[in-house]
Structure to design on (237 residues):
């Protein structure tokens, strides 16, 4: 199945903007598990039923049911335990363990830097900002690669792609500039490029770092995304 291409509105070092396409980098296949000529397959089996839970056993036998487990198997449903599990469905439960037949109301909880709750409110939709009228901006904040990989955790990487000859020259020039400096460029959204990037509606805000790789006429322009910065903990007095 072909990968989906989406648009991103972006500026270069000269402040010129263009709309190009991007796609997610395909992750490499993980190592094959098993031995030569034989593949390992994973299956799920039913470990217990509701009759074998702690709450049920406590109500039926008492809190101290260790001896009962040693003398017999009251926690095992002989007819069900050990059966292979196929397709499953998510079921939402209340605090009392009752099945919810309607989706619960979602409340957004705002916390401060100290972890204390500041506000509760109904969630609002946050629009994406990578293909807006205002482009994703080349901020001019060049950062060495060695510094970036030690300060940020990258969860996703996008590859920017040209759609014609003009956009090829545009992106190739950006990649060449970054490759020559062996650095990445901090990218930002908003009028001054100070806002994080949001790829989809209600998506996670991310810091963007643009990396360029060039091999003659070939190039790669990669946008690394991070929503986690590593900081050294403050020393205790």
């Amino acid at each position: 199945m072909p990968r989906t291409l989406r648009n991103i509105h972006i500026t270069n070092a000269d402040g010129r903007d263009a709309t190009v396409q991007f796609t997610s980098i395909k992750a490499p296949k993980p190592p094959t598990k098993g031995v030569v000529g034989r593949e390992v397959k994973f299956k799920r089996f039913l470990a217990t039923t509701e009759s074998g839970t702690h709450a049920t056993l406590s109500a039926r036998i008492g809190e101290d049911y260790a001896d009962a487990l040693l003398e017999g198997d009251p926690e095992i449903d002989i007819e069900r335990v050990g059966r292979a599990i196929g397709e499953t469905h998510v079921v939402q439960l209340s605090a009392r363990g009752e099945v919810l037949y309607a989706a619960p109301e979602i409340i957004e909880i705002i916390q401060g830097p100290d972890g204390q709750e500041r506000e509760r409110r109904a969630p609002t939709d946050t629009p994406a900002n990578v293909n807006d009228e205002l482009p994703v901006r080349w901020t001019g904040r060049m950062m060495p690669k060695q510094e970036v990989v030690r300060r940020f955790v990258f969860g996703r990487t996008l590859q920017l792609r040209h759609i014609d000859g003009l956009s090829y020259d545009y992106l190739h020039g950006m990649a060449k500039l970054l490759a020559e400096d062996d650095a990445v460029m901090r990218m930002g959204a908003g009028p001054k490029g100070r806002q994080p990037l949001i790829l989809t509606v209600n998506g996670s805000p991310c810091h963007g770092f643009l990396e360029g790789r060039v091999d003659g006429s070939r190039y790669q322009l990669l946008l690394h995304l991070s929503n986690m910065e590593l900081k050294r903990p403050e020393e205790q007095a």
Q: What stands out?
A: The CA atoms of residues 126 and 202 lie 5 Å apart. Residues 46-79 form one domain. The mean pLDDT is 89.
